[in-house]
Amino acid sequence: MSGSTPNTPMDFWYNLPYESRQKVYNWMLNLILSIGLVIVLFPIYWMLATSFIPPTELFSVPNPLVPTNPTLESYIAVLDTDVLLWYRNTVIFAGGVVTLTTVAATLGGYGLARLDIPYKKTFARVILFGYMFPPILLSIPMFIFWRQIGIINSLPGVILAQTATTLPFSLWLMWQFFQTVPYSYEESSRVIGCSRFQAFYEIALPLAKPGMIAVAIFSFAIAWGAYTIPSILLTNSSNWVLTLGLYSFTQAESVLWGQIMAASTMLVLPTFAFVYYLQKYILRGFQATRI
Fold first, then answer.
1. What's the rounded Cα separation, in Å, for the pair 207 and 120?
2. Distance of CA 226 to the CA centre of its chain
3. Which H or E element spans position 10?
4. Closest by alpha carbon to 242, among 257, 222, 226?
5. Which of 39, 67, 189, 243 is geometrically suited to a Cys-Cys bond with 194, CB 3.0 to 4.6 A?
6. pTM of the model
7. Residue 133 phi, psi (nearest 5)
C-alpha cells in the first residue's frame, strides 16, 4: 500500500531523501578511513612514545599510552654511538640511489618511448620482470661480482647494487609516462631547428617532472629502508647505514628497546616528511601512467 510505513530497514533506507543517504555514506566513509588511519599510525605513535619512556619503565604494567615521565635518555644514549655516522651514510646511500635511478630511468624511458628500437615493448616487459625477483636472490651474485672488481664494503658499491633493484620498475614507469607526453611538441621544436637533445631537455624533460619525482620518491623509500643488500655488501661498521646500525642495540642478554625506538624514530621521520611534501607529485605521476 502506498504511504504505508516501511517494514524493513532497506525500505526505510530507500525512502530516505538522497541528501540524507549521501550524508550517511560520507559519515560511514569518514569513519572507516579514520579507523584505518588509526591502525596505520598507531605503530608509529607507539615507537615515538616508547623512545621517550625511561628505560626503567619500559616494561611496567600497565604500560601507559602517553609517557608520564618523558625523557631524552634513549636519544642521548643513541647519540653516544656511531648513529650520526650511520645517518650520514644513509643520506649518501639514499641520495646516490635516487640520483642514479632517476637519471637512468629518465634517459632509458625516453629512449624506449621515442626511439625506434626493435622489440622494445618486449624489452620493457623483461626489465619489469626483473623487478619481481627479491633482493636476496640478487645479493649473493652481486657480492661475488663486487668482490672481484674491488668495490665490496663501500658506499659506491652498495649504491650501484641497490640501484639495480629500483631501476627496473622506475624505467618502466618513465617509459609509460613519456608515452603520455605528446610527441608533436618535440616535432614542432625540431622544425624550428632544435636538435633531439634540445627537444628532450627543453620540451620533454619539464613535462616529465611529475614522473621523475614519482621515481625519486619510490627509489628513496626503497633505499632509505633497505636492509638486505647493505647487510651483505657492507661488513665494516664505519660504512653501515642506519638500518644496519639498529641491530647494534641488540645485545646478547637484552634488547635496548628505548634506543632502538629512538634510532627508528630518527630513521622514519625524514621519510614521512619527504613523502608528505612531494605526495601530490607521486600521485600525479602514477595517475598519468594509469597505475
1. 23
2. 10
3. helix 9-14
4. 226
5. 189
6. 0.79
7. -75, 135
